[in-house]
Specification:
Mean pLDDT: 95
Number of strands: 4
Helix content: 40-55%
Strand order of the largest sheet: 1-2
Radius of gyration: 19 Å
Distance between the termini: 17 Å
Bound molecules: zinc ion
């Protein structure tokens, strides 16, 4: 899962207006896909807008849920078919009595038990382990992470398959770096390989998940990394640095 700065969309108000007029998410699809280099905001799998891309309504649009948010851009999650199919109308709250029933109810009183890629503090509170499983960084967010994984079924064997394979390659590159850190040429080669994986490029999945893992790997291997310059040489994307490393 990655952070999406929805306010970074140029002419956001204009786009919102257009969405309410055309009443079809296809008119914003392209813009949303560009925000994540065509990866699902929940699971970071590659999903081109022309392929199986869908939009999940974070607060479900069902008639008995939040129908007034059907064309609300900030309620949209650019998503792969799999995440959208698992999520459906699920939207658990910590306290059901606080659920908004009509459009004039205050949704900010709700305490959703579902991570939101648009919520900076949610993303700052999560991390990944070496097999690519989502884990909470803070105790307060444990229930939310557990519930999100349950709803989206992020860590089931088949859902994890591609991700754990990609993570094992990354972990092996990091370990190889540690092992051969004194061989400058070889160490640089490893850093180059790692940087390729965390570069924003169409078709590059798991960039944020990888970055989150690398950051925790730094912490875990702190003493072993003394005297090496991997920290300076890893090229984290700017928005990742700003949101995740500065908190
Ligand atoms: Zn997904």
């Amino acid at each position: 899962m990655r952070y999406i700065d929805i306010n970074s969309i140029e002419n956001l108000d204009e786009l919102q207006l257009r969405l309410k007029e055309c009443r079809n998410w296809s008119c914003v699809k392209e813009v949303l896909s560009e925000l994540s280099q065509k990866t699902c905001w929940y699971c970071e799998h590659y999903v081109p807008a022309t392929g199986y891309a869908e939009v999940d309504h974070w607060r479900p649009k069902a008639q008995n849920m939040y129908p007034w948010l059907e064309f609300e851009l900030k309620n949209y999650i650019y998503s792969c078919k799999c995440c959208n199919n698992k999520k459906l109308n699920k939207f658990p709250l910590k306290d059901e009595t606080k659920r908004a029933k009509i459009s004039t109810d205050d949704i900010s009183k709700e305490e959703p038990l579902l991570l939101n890629p648009l919520n900076k503090s949610d993303i700052q509170s999560i991390c990944y382990d070496m097999s690519g499983r989502l884990v909470p960084k803070k105790n307060e967010i444990r229930d939310k992470v557990r519930k999100t994984k349950e709803i989206l079924q992020l860590d089931t064997t088949d859902r994890l398959a591609e991700k754990s394979k990609a993570f094992s390659v990354l972990c092996s590159d990091l370990d190889t770096y540690l092992q051969f850190k004194s061989n400058e040429e070889f160490a640089n080669e490893m850093i180059k390989k790692i940087n390729e994986k965390i570069k924003y490029e169409e078709g590059n999945p798991f960039v944020w998940s990888f970055c989150m893992y690398i950051e925790s790997w730094f912490k875990e291997n702190d003493t072993k990394l003394v005297g090496t310059n991997i920290r300076e040489k890893i090229k984290f994307p700017e928005d990742f640095k700003e949101v995740y490393l500065n908190n």
